[in-house]
UniProtKB/TrEMBL annotation:
Cofactor dependence: Fe(2+)
One function term, GO molecular function aspect: 2-oxoglutarate-dependent dioxygenase activity
InterPro entries: Phytyl_CoA_dOase-like
SUPFAM superfamilies (alphabetical): Clavaminate synthase-like
Name of the protein in question: Probable L-proline 4-hydroxylase
Gene source species: Robiginitalea biformata (strain ATCC BAA-864 / DSM 15991 / KCTC 12146 / HTCC2501)
Signal peptide: none
Length: 301
């Protein structure tokens, strides 16, 4: 008999456990909405860090699930869209990276509907309803964790349109410059879309694509240092990356990628491994791209 951890949780919309509260949209909005100052900072800089997403007990629960998921022998392994025990080509610099874990364990499934996440996400998408795109895990072991090269997320996502996407990176460990926290080039979300590069390749390969003005901005990068359980949100064209883990502790994180409701497929090909294709021009939706949140105005509140 299969357990709840081996069945495909994408078949269930909404919470399957009690790790996160289920709140009416209006109450969630009042509790967790961002301030006008935070929204203005995001608009100007392309990112917003230091937003608390998880309590300590939620961090602990997700760490335990992560430890189980990193085992290639996990009974739900076939549900991953991608699974890389080490995406780096250098065996001495390890970068664990996977997609699709929301389908496998209850905590990572339910965090999609966490009101502390969906309310800020809706605001940063201009007050629109939030629909799920896909999730990611990024783990760097102590002392030899690899890099995630500078890049723009939307350069990998042009198979969906229009550009109305958002990324939320959440640390399961304290994130510091020493252990490879996320870093940003403020204002780079206003740049044109650049070519996609190899994520686990050379840290600075994107630099070769920049003009002199962009290179000047490139030197003004900032580190998004935060305690475990806190998130940083960024624009889909925001240039970001993370350096190696030089510390004596692991640096574990998960990413939630979303877009505004109404986003459409821009390809007739498969969008995620194992997910049926959505015809080009058709709205993104259905079992694998569920609606996560409608702001109160959309409920008539």
């Amino acid at each position: 008999m299969k357990t709840s951890q081996t069945r495909d949780l994408s078949e269930t919309r909404g919470l399957v456990g009690d790790l996160f509260p289920e709140l009416p949209a209006g109450e969630a909005w009042e509790r967790y909405r961002l301030t006008d100052a935070q929204l203005a900072f995001f608009e100007e800089n392309g990112f917003l860090s230091g937003v608390k997403i998880l309590d300590d007990d939620q961090v602990d629960a997700l760490r335990l699930e992560l430890e189980q998921l990193m085992d290639p022998g996990h009974p739900g392994h076939h549900l991953f869209y991608e699974f890389h025990s080490n995406e780096s080509s250098d065996p001495d610099t390890v970068l664990f990276h996977s997609l699709g874990h929301w389908r496998i364990t209850p905590g990572f499934h339910d965090v999609l509907w966490n009101p502390r996440f969906v309310v800020p996400a809706s605001q940063l998408l201009g007050g629109k309803a939030v629909r799920f795109w896909h999730d990611q895990l990024f783990c760097k072991p102590a002392r030899h964790g690899g890099v995630v090269a500078w890049h723009q997320d939307y350069s990998y996502w042009t198979r969906t349109t229009p550009l109305q996407h958002l990324t939320c990176w959440v640390g399961l460990d304290d994130a510091t410059a020493d252990n490879g926290c996320l870093q940003y080039i403020p204002g780079s979300h206003k740049w044109d879309l650049l070519e996609k590069i190899e994520l686990a390749g050379s840290m600075d390969s994107l630099r070769d694509l920049l003009n002199p003005g962009q290179i000047a901005q490139y030197e003004n990068r900032v580190a998004a240092e935060m305690p475990a359980g806190y998130a940083t949100f960024h624009h889909p064209k925001m240039v970001h990356g993370s350096y190696e883990n030089r510390s004596d502790k692991p640096r574990r994180a998960f990413v939630l990628n979303v877009f505004a409701d109404g986003t459409r497929s821009n390809s007739d090909e498969v969008l995620l491994n194992g997910v049926p294709p959505i015809k080009k021009g058709e709205p993104m939706g259905g079992r694998f791209f569920p609606l996560l949140f409608k702001p109160p105005a959309a409920h008539g509140e």
